[in-house]
Specification:
Distance between the termini: 51 Å
Number of strands: 0
Structural class: mainly alpha
Mean pLDDT: 81
Low-confidence stretches: 82-89
Order of helices and strands: HHHHHHHH
Largest sheet: none
CATH superfamily of the largest domain: lambda repressor-like DNA-binding domains
Radius of gyration: 18 Å
Helix content: 55-70%
CATH class of the largest domain: Mainly Alpha
Strand content: under 5%
CATH architecture of the largest domain: Orthogonal Bundle
Number of helices: 8
Shape: globular
CATH topology of the largest domain: 434 Repressor (Amino-terminal Domain)
Length: about 140
């Protein structure tokens, strides 16, 4: 074999994806996260891709900066759902994480979060639910 590169560990891939998810949810760039940690944005990219493993103290620092508990990075990890939920279908939270990792999901979440009036947020939610039901019928 000429390819000595190892595939990233699935746990490292998941933790990296969760770092990216949370960073995007709050609108923080890789550069700003790197600056806060005293590392380069390239290192953040490697963490997010799972190429480099995040050490415990660094993960705690990232959790503090992103304002989440360390456990956030392990939520919805593949293999956990089967143990805790039996034979349920794919969890709704896995679907939500996938959506929020998309460009549209991030944009929608940011725009929705900027709506200050709870009545307007409720109307937007009702509209989206109605539009989603139309897709189910068609």
């Amino acid at each position: 074999m000429s390819d000595n590169k190892k595939s990233p560990n699935p746990v490292d891939l998941h933790v990296g994806a969760r770092i990216r998810l949370r960073r995007n949810m709050i609108g923080l760039s890789q550069e700003k996260l790197g600056e806060s940690l005293g590392i380069t944005f390239q290192q953040i990219q490697k963490y997010e891709k799972g190429t480099n493993r995040v050490g415990a103290s660094r993960l705690q620092a990232i959790a503090n900066i992103l304002n989440v508990p360390v456990t956030f990075f392990f939520d919805d990890m593949p293999g956990q759902a089967e143990r805790s939920k039996g034979f349920d279908e794919e969890s709704e939270t896995t679907y939500v994480v996938g959506f929020l990792n998309s460009s549209e999901g991030i944009q929608l979440a940011r725009a929705f979060a900027r709506i200050g009036d709870p009545k307007i947020r409720r109307k937007v939610l009702d509209l989206v639910r109605t539009l989603g039901q139309e897709d189910d019928v068609g």
